[in-house]
Specification:
Length: 185
């Protein structure tokens, strides 16, 4: 009888965890674009004529998008983007095309310095384009702009280091300023 109760409890715990895992994996595989607003005022954004809401000044909003061509209107800024048929595509659309964001990766080690140096890679936009590809390895949560880096993170069992990647404001590629709190070179 006690064994049956234990099995029942295990099933009650396992089923929601499996369902959450499937939902999370499905969410991560869909294309997402972060709409960045580098201006000093909020801007309303529409995608294919449907409002995705207001994007705050110097902030961003991440939206799940479909593959293909889309019309974007962000305040007075109007344009077209094409989302490629790439599993887990991540992109950045910059209102006005004046992005000062970088993909910043911090490495954490179990002791001392990790095997890799922290990196700051300014987002590169193809000539004349407002949509830049981001690393597909970025989780949807990592696409929040200027998210804080923690002083410590949990390193997976059996590993000696791990990394965390965020989108952060930078002044220019040679400057040490990074807008994500907790990051230092």
């Amino acid at each position: 009888m006690i064994r049956l109760i234990g099995v029942g409890i295990a099933i009650l715990i396992a089923v929601p965890v499996v369902i959450w895992g499937l939902w999370f994996a499905r969410k991560q595989g869909k294309p997402h674009v972060v709409f960045e607003n580098p201006t000093t005022a909020p801007v309303d954004v529409t995608l294919d004529g449907k409002s995705i809401g207001s994007v705050p000044a110097n902030g961003g909003k991440t939206v799940q998008v479909s593959v293909g061509a889309h019309d974007v209107v962000a305040g007075a800024d109007k344009g077209k983007i094409t989302v490629p048929n790439t599993s887990g595509f991540r992109g950045l659309y910059s209102v006005g095309g004046k992005s000062k964001l970088a993909v910043v990766t911090a490495f954490y080690a179990t002791s001392g310095k990790g095997l890799h140096e922290d990196t700051v890679h300014p987002v590169a936009f193809p000539s004349g384009q407002r949509l830049a590809a981001l690393p597909t390895s970025m989780s949807v949560d990592a696409m929040d702009i200027d998210k804080a880096f923690l002083s410590t993170v949990e390193i997976p069992q059996g590993s000696t280091q791990t990394s965390v990647t965020h989108l952060c404001h930078v002044r220019d590629k040679d400057d040490d300023f990074v807008g994500c709190p907790g990051f230092s070179r």
